[in-house]
Structure formats: C-alpha cells, structure tokens
Amino acid sequence: MSAFQAFILGLVQGVCEFLPISSSGHLVLLQKLFGVNEGAMSFDIIVHFGTLISICVVMRKRLLTYLKNPLGHIPKMIVLGTVPTVIIVLAFGSFFKEMFETGMSLGIGFIFTAALLFYAERHNEGEGGGYGPESGQGGGYGGYRQTGGSDGAPMENTVTPQGAIIAGIAQGIAVVPAISRSGSTIAGGIISDFGRKNAIEFAFLMSIPVTLMAVAQDLLKIILNRADKAADAAAEAAAAAGASVGPLAMIIGFVVSAVAGLFAARFMLTMITKIKLTYFSIYTGALGLLILIDQLFIGAVFEKIF
Fold first, then answer.
1. Hey, what's the torsion of the CAs at 43, 46, 51, 53, to 10 degrees?
2. Would you kindly state where each structural domain of the chain is located, as residue ranges?
3. Which tens digits make up the pLDDT trace of 89-102?
4. At residue 21, what are phi and psi to the nearest 5 degrees?
C-alpha cells in the first residue's frame, strides 16, 4: 500500500465513520478501485482505532461523567443497546465478512441507508421537529437548536430502554457494508423520539464499546494466528499480505483517520440541527444506484451478480 492510498483510506474512514454515509461501504469501494487487498493486521484495525480515539476526545466530558457514575441511566442504556448489536454480529458474523470481502452488498446497502435516512427525516418533521435560533437556554454545539418534539430535553429524559434496543438493532444491521452505522443508529434514535441532538450523541456513545470490541477481537485473532504453529498456507499468505502494509502506511492511516474523525464528529454535532438527513439520503441513494448498475449490467468495478 502506498502512502497516498493510506492517506485516502484513512481520510475516508475518519470522515465517513461519523457522517451517515457508511465508512465500511466507502472503504470497500475504494479498495476495489485501488486494487488493495488488506491482510489480517492491520489497516482496518488501525484506522478504526484512530476514529475511536477521535470520538473519545469529542465526547470526553460525557464519558468522564459516565465513568464517575457507571450505573447511571445513559451508561445502562448504552449497555442495553450494545447487547442486540453483539447478538447480531455473533449470529451473522461470517456472512457479514463475506459481504465485506466481495462488496456484493454495496449497492443495496447504500440504497437502504438512503431510505432509512429519508424515513427518519420525515418522521422528525411529522413529530414537529424544526429548526430555529437557540433561545439562549441550554447547551448545543452549533448556536441552533431544534424546536418541537423531544428536542431540547436532556438525553436522560428521552432515551428509553425500548429506544436503546431499537438503536442497538439498527447498529447491528449496519455491520453490513454500505449500511451506515452512524446513520442507522441516529435514525433509530430519531424514530424513537430521542430528539435529533440526543440521537446523534447517543449514536456516538454507542459506537465506542462496539468499535473497541471489534478492534480487540481483530487484534486477538492476529495474536492467535501468529502463535499458531500449525497455521495453513492460506493463513500464512494472509499474514504476508498484512505484513506488506508498512509502518509508514500504518502511521499515516492512523493519524489521518483520527484527525478527520475529530472534525467529522464535531461537524455532525454542530450541523445536526441545521442540515437535513435528506441530503445524505440523496448522496447515498445515488451512489448505491450507480454501484447497483455496475453490479447488474457492467462489471467494471465489481463482479456481475448475475
């Protein structure tokens, strides 16, 4: 992997992890375009760890509060929401892995993301969500707050057990490449009437344990594979491919994904009350349609499905 490819992939991971447009889908697409075949270690783990660092920095005040009171309402809701995500991943992990490797879900996944974001925006408008200048009371990241619905209420008052489970199921489904994790979880929160600002903050908080577990799982697999003296030839080949990703590419990927993730997370927290999810829906829908056309009729980037 070249330094340029590492930079682009790290940038895409950092930006797309927090925008509701699917980082995994964009990574698979770019890897196909670049002809990059990542090995076991490495790059995916490094860039995901970079975005994990960035969201911890952005949400540090809330995290410190929850660490002081780990049995509070929101920590319990994060754990509750994480349970269905873990169950879905454990039940369908191998199937999701095949999708990631082949990219066969990208067209449908992006279109599904578009439909989900569009529905969430319509639901928010139907519940009276709107846009207006901040009244001067309460916090907020961008100088604006929403009016109507659950917006403006503390997260502790709007995040319910039922809503946390819905958000967790949405996050689990988003393991499929091109179904946006942040988009699905935010949509689940909006549909559950968390309020837009609370929905995005809860989605970001829910990403931390899941990303941490995914990184730890991948690292454990690498350690076990390297310790296994009876590894077969395929495993050795995969390890060799991973080793081809040099330390410079690793460093570039980590730094770029962390910095880009920091800006993307702050952007979403600032702009969620100013920008409609419909814009992201149009983008992901158009991208999904182009990919689906290639998968069905052209085969320029992906193998034809039929």
1. -170
2. 3-298
3. 888 877 777 777 77
4. -130, 5
